[in-house]
Amino acid sequence: MNPIPSTPERPSLGAVLRAHRLAAGLSIEGLAERCGVSVRAISDIERDRVRRPQRRTLTVLCDVLDVPDDARRRLDEATSDRPAGCEPPAPPCHFTGRAAALRTLGDAARRPSGDRQQATVVVVTGPAGVGKTGLVARAAADLAPEFPDGCFFVDLRGMDDVPTPPGEALHLLLRALGVPERRIPAGLDERATAYRSVFCQRRALVVWDNAADEAQARPLLPGAGPGLVLVTSRRRLSGLDVARWLSLEPLPAEESTAMLRAIAAPDADADPTGWAELARHCGHMPLALRVTGQRLSDEPGLSVGELNRRFTGEQARLTVIDAGAAGIHTALSLSYRRLEADLRRTFRRLSLVPGPDFGPEPVAVVGDADVEEAERRLEALVESGLVAAVPADRYGLHDLVREFAADRMTAEEPATTGALRTTLLRWWLARTTAAGQHFEPGGPASLTEFPDRTAAAGWLDAERGNWFAALRSAAAEGLHGQVVDTVDALHWFSDSRVHLDVWPEVFRLSAGSAARLGDPRTEAVHLNYLSWAQAICQREYARSVATATRALERAVRAGDPAQQGWALLYAASGHTGLGEHAAALRHRQRAWVMLRRAADPEGLPQAMASLGSSLLALGRPAEALRVHERTRRLLRDPDHPIAAFARASTDALTCRRIGDDLAALGRWPECVAVRREAVSGLRATAMPAIEALALVELVEALRRTGATRSAPAYLARAIGLADDCDDPDLARRAGDLLAELSGAG
């Protein structure tokens, strides 16, 4: 801020107050204790960092210091003729974190002198409650020594019904910069010119806080000069021609928890997990953390555990946080009410989108708009600061903003909420089904919204959070037939995304829906899917066996030999995981009989291949090799009626099994050849998790032959795939092997 000049004729407020405190023989701490004013506030006044303290603050200080009437008049004179509203506020108490953001602002302030043809402007953006004003207040305090011509702050009141007109804001700043009233022009353009003329000569910092939009902020941008201008806004203000933008996100979990504890009870010894949970309930948003922390501080009987219980109860989080006071809800309401009617409607309906982020298509479904118009509205909501732009041309809502949108939806559209939610759920499931059908053995029965399997996979990957959440909601709302149909379509896709942790829950939902439909065959199908996920994804082998046993019972009741065979195969997988290889072999032999009887074109080679794996596990590699080679011949027989994708994927997996057999027999050159074939097939059928494992196995075979020139490239790909599939153990195995080979070389 601009220091108050101190002259023999007119001493500064801070100098006068300091002199009276010293004369009274008091330290700042002693004075603070007597008058109830904080140490920081007194220190800021004495250092002339606060030029116009509140009158009641000045009065109590004078009363405690027993300042005579004539001296009180001098204090009034020291603060007279100073425009209010241009002093930066004190940084928030318990300001926490934001090191990177403060470093960015510091770098902007200290840019090289040769780069000062244009004053630096930084636009600080972010949603309501994320701490934009607190950040710039902290930065202004930290950077004050860098700006000898002062630090100035003007609240533009961007969320008011009538924000501060830019001409009025310029008038305030020009007065603070020392321009006499009579020399301040009347017109906006002339005031903007005068501001740039004065500012270009000053090494000063100006904060334009809470800008409404570009139209308000544009006249406030500086021209040339060594100064720094910070603009804060909930809107992105992307139409401004400025140097840089700084977008604030919620605090990291650790900093969020530390801030909450500091505000609430710095000496409290509550369970750290309780504090972390409470910070999470606050969405790691500084405003919510401050409101919640202050409640804990002001209400001694309120505990962290009790607040967490309230958060997990029926009350909405915003209600628990604000507790009837102005807080997050009020801040968001200010942004919401400034939107046009169509944007308010679109915003509140975003609460119906089940996942964390989304594209414009589902917004069009519930927004009474086509996709192009939905995208336009979303971009406008991004500009407003209520919606976040997510990489890859997507959008998202912070948790607390989503709850606010849901609150507005319930309050303003109670009659349509349920119908719109069901419409959107049905849309998600129908589109997911259309994408999943591209992975079924015969492909989609008719044209879908997706031109090919690659496009379908891309959509399923991008929208996983949405279709997974939609399945949960649809099952809860009784849409059991559509849940079963959708998961049926996803079954083959799951083989290419084994590493995802969603499948046990997906198949648990579909098995539950199938049971409610009362069809034992359908229930057997989905219990079999669930057994697969429990064994392969969760490695819960005993549970997998129990689920497959239930599937077998339902399949017997339905008289379906194919599903009986699959149930036996999945039970065998569980037994294999438990190390019960003899039991697994018996189940696979029975499965082969049942699937042959059912003439199941996909199941029969699966049964043969897994039977061979049991033989290998029992120490019979030569027999295993004969079974696996017979399986491969069946898969490569053009007369065997199996769909192309099922043929290719099962062939690749069978090649990998043949490699294991040859390795057990010590036939390493043949093993290398077939493992290369397996890697190629797994890559072509897009099974990244298994491809990563096959690459490591290939390198292990290459090392046996001594031909390891290509091994580093294989291992590098394996590490990348393992990282993508969140398999740290495999990535570590590949990395250790790469280090061994490098050391040997």
Descriptive key words:
745 residues, disordered N terminus, three-stranded antiparallel beta sheet, TPR-like_helical_dom_sf
The best one-word shape is: elongated
Most strands sheet: 5 strands, parallel
Helix-strand makeup class: mainly alpha
Query: How many angstroms separate the termini?
Result: 64 Å
Radius of gyration (CA) equals 34 Å
- Beta strands, count: 8
Tell me the helix content.
55-70%
Arrangement of strands in the largest sheet: 2-3-4-1-5
Q: Are there runs of 5+ residues with pLDDT below 50, and where?
A: 1-10, 80-85
- Average predicted local confidence, pLDDT: 85
SS strand fraction: under 5%
In oligomeric terms, what are we looking at? single chain
Organism: Micromonospora humida
Protein name: Helix-turn-helix domain-containing protein
Pfam family, one: HTH_31
Domain HTH cro/C1-type: 17-71
Give a quick rundown of the structure:
The protein has 36 helices and 8 strands. By secondary structure, it is mainly α.
Record the SSE blueprint.
Blueprint: H1 13-23, H2 28-35, H3 39-46, H4 55-65, H5 69-79, H6 99-109, E1 120-125, H7 132-143, E2 151-155, H8 166-176, H9 188-199, E3 205-209, H10 214-217, E4 228-233, E5 244-247, H11 253-264, H12 272-281, H13 286-298, H14 304-311, H15 317-322, H16 328-337, H17 341-349, E6 357-358, H18 360-366, H19 371-384, E7 388-390, E8 394-396, H20 399-412, H21 417-436, H22 453-462, H23 464-476, H24 480-495, H25 503-517, H26 520-536, H27 541-558, H28 561-577, H29 581-598, H30 603-617, H31 621-635, H32 644-664, H33 668-684, H34 688-705, H35 711-724, H36 728-744
Parallel strand pairs: 1-4, 1-5, 2-3, 3-4
Antiparallel strand pairs: 6-8, 7-8
Helix pairs in contact: 6-7, 8-9, 11-12, 11-13, 12-14, 17-19, 17-20, 18-19, 21-22, 21-23, 21-24, 23-25, 24-25, 25-26, 26-27, 26-28, 27-28, 28-29, 28-30, 29-30, 30-31, 30-32, 31-32, 32-33, 33-34, 34-35, 34-36, 35-36
